[in-house]
Amino acid sequence: MNRSQSGATLIELxxxxxxxxxISLLAVTDFRAEAPRRQLKExxxxxxxxxxxxxxxxxxxxxxxxxPPPAIRGMLPNDISIGVAxxxxxxxxxxxxxxxxxxxxxxxxxTPIFSPNGTVNKGxxxxxNSKNEGTAVTINFTGRVRKYRWNGxxxx
Length: 156
Description:
By secondary structure, the chain is an alpha+beta fold. The chain contains three helices and six strands, in the order H-E-H-E-H-E-E-E-E. It has helices spanning 10-61, 69-74, 99-102; strands at residues 65-66, 81-82, 113-114, 123-128, 134-139, 145-149. A four-stranded antiparallel β-sheet has the order 2-4-5-6, with helices on one face. The longest helix is centred in the N-terminal third of the chain and has 52 residues, at 10-61. The radius of gyration is 24 Å and the shape is elongated. The model has no long low-confidence stretch (mean pLDDT 91).
C-alpha cells in the first residue's frame, strides 16, 4: 500500500464509531430524564394560552367565560396533574399557602371567570409532574395571565 494515500484504517473507524455511540447514549439518557420537566413546561404554557384565549373570547363576545376544573384537567397531558407539589411553601405573590391553594386551584369556586371587560376573580392554578416539580399559572384581577416555576426555594 502506498503511504501517500490518505484514509482511515478499520480500527480508527471503529474507535470513532464507538465514541459517537457513547455520546449519543448519554444524550438519550439525559433527554429521558428531562421529559417530565419538559412536559410540565409545555402543559403550563398551553394552559396560559388557553386562559388568554378565554379572556379574549369574553371580551370579543361580550359575555362571561368560565373555565371549570374539568375543562382545566382536559387541557393537561396524563403525566401532569393539578395540585401543589411537595416543598412549595408560598404562593407566587409571596403569601403562605392556605387551604384554598392545596387542591391546586385557588379561584372562587375553583373556576376562573372572565368578565366581558377582561377582568377575572384572581387566583392561581398549580400543576405538578411525576417528579413532583411544580409550576403555577396565575391570573390577576385585570386578567393578566403569568406562569411561574418553583426552583425549590422560590417562584421564578
